[in-house]
Amino acid sequence: MADAATAPGRVTLVGGGPGSEELLTVGAVEALITADVVLYDRLAPHTRLASLAPDAVLIDVGKTPGHHPVSQTGIEELIVEHALAGSDVVRLKGGDVYVFGRGSEEVLACHRAGIPVTVISGVSSAIAVPAAAGIPLTHRGVSRMFTVVSGHAPLSDDELLHLAGLGSTIVVLMGVNTLPHFSAGLLRQGMSPEMPVAVIERGFSPDQRTTIADLGSIVSVAIRSGVSSPAVLVVGEVVRLAHTGDLTAAEMMARAGRLSVLG
Ligand SMILES: C[S@@+](CC[C@H](N)C(=O)[O-])C[C@H]1O[C@@H](n2cnc3c(N)ncnc32)[C@H](O)[C@@H]1O
After folding, report:
1. Which residue in 63, 249, 259, 261 has its CB near the most CB atoms, within 10 A?
2. What residues flank ligand 1, with Cβ below 6 Å?
């Protein structure tokens, strides 16, 4: 904690995008350059932070599913503690700050402590990871809206009924563990078993992988392929538009029957 003479510093919550430095915004880069302290997440681009934030103390507060070495409360306390000590604190988060990122809780913690806080939006994995797999979320005549949902906890029957009835693209974050519940629920609520589904793992990493199957078989295909987090799921006709090399997803699916694993 700062003594009474220390003026509080400031906090900048930065959306770091889905892992590629190319998707850091200019604002993000500028905030990092002047930072004294950077608290960063596992899925934010962090491998070259030492050069992006040359004067900063770097603190890894990354969580993996079911493993939170630093709790959310602990992260908020660290942010506030460093800012009250007069530091220019950057909280670097994966994707966008406010998309399933607990960013607003961190902003509120700063407000409660009287610390000035700024938010710099980031590119969300919900949009960028499908794009990296060649999947557009909207396409004229195919889908004119998309819904982004959290698969962290199983959806209710009402939510599944709503989603199944929308007739547009569904994007699921944190959805690998709940995929069996999710796909069974959509089928139960009337979605066609022929509806294409894509699972894009580890977007923007050298081992990015896309698995495509129809809704009726996606669970068995995902188990066979060893699909794991982090991954973005896309459910909808737009998946047929995916391009990989010379082939579209539809051509790949037609060739491989109900299974297609695309590089
Ligand atoms: C806690 S949420 C945070 C989302 C983040 N705020 C955003 O806007 O992208 C983490 C989830 O985002 C998705 N995700 C983030 N980065 C990803 C990546 N590079 N590849 C695949 N999925 C990613 C996964 O579904 C992961 O479980």
Report:
1. 249
2. 18-19, 43, 94-96, 99-101, 124-126, 129, 173-174, 202-204, 229-232
CA dihedral 149, 153, 156, 160 (to 10 degrees): 40
Does any domain span residue 5? no
CA dist 166 and 47 (Å) reads 40
Q: Are 17 and 92 in contact (CB under 8 A)?
A: no
- Residue 103: which CATH number? 3.40.1010.10
Q: Per-10-residue mean pLDDT for the chain, 263 residues long?
A: 70 97 97 98 93 96 78 96 98 98 96 97 98 95 97 97 96 98 98 96 95 95 96 97 69 54 44
Matching residue, tokens 């806080």:
117
Q: Is residue 14 part of a domain?
A: yes
Closest CA to 215 of 141, 163, 137: 163
Residue 237 to residue 168: CA distance in whole angstroms: 8
